[in-house]
Design brief:
The structure is a single chain. The chain is built from 10 helices and no strands. It is mostly helical and 182 residues long. Helix 2 (12-33) runs antiparallel to helix 3 (36-52) and helix 8 (138-149) packs across helix 10 (165-181). The radius of gyration is 18 Å and the shape is globular.
């Protein structure tokens, strides 16, 4: 499997786009599909699509960012639909892995109160957020992420999700209501 960097070497425009949007896009995909390795594959596929369809990418940075988020969202939705019968149990998997490693437990206890621990806590909150998002319908989760985390307007959100502004607003309201009901 080729790394994303090798794909980008041939095209400085896409490389610059990857440098400016890649991290944000990967974070979005991680929250949407939960598994970092799947998010990385989707990120690579998104930029492969960009490489294959360069003529479709808008000239301005905001348009390019929106185009990439739209492609990534569609790829994530396809992945979530294909694997909808599998229940994600990432937290159980991670806990079991951590508890089975005494060195990891000892290192974790030694880190209590450090800046590293605060970073770990932020990652834990991100994982909890991802689990909450996983319980939402895919369009609701994407709407919430795109609006609240990545700052897209309601009109941009509707365009990214191939929806009317009314549909996008409903998905956003339903996602927020779900979060309040937890």
């Amino acid at each position: 499997r080729l790394g994303i960097g090798k794909w980008m070497d041939a095209n400085s425009k896409l490389d610059a786009l990857y440098q400016s949007v890649g991290s944000e896009l990967k974070a979005y995909l991680c929250r949407l599909v939960i598994r970092p390795n799947i998010a990385e594959e989707l990120l690579q596929t998104t930029f492969l699509r960009a490489l294959e369809h360069q003529e479709a990418i808008p000239e301005d940075l905001n348009g390019q960012r929106a185009w990439l988020f739209k492609v990534a969202s569609n790829l994530a939705f396809d992945t979530l639909r294909r694997h909808s019968t599998k229940r994600e149990i990432i937290m159980f998997d991670l806990r079991e892995q951590a508890e089975s490693n005494p060195d990891f437990v000892a290192q974790s206890e030694a880190m209590i109160g450090t800046p590293e621990t605060k970073a770990i806590a932020r990652e834990h909150l991100a994982a909890c957020f991802a689990c909450t998002l996983h319980n939402l319908h895919e369009q609701q989760a994407a709407a919430l992420l795109l609006k609240e985390v990545h700052g897209f307007s309601l009109d941009e959100l509707a365009e990214l999700l191939d929806a009317t502004p009314g549909q996008a607003k409903n998905w956003l309201q339903e996602a927020r209501a779900f979060g309040l009901g937890q």
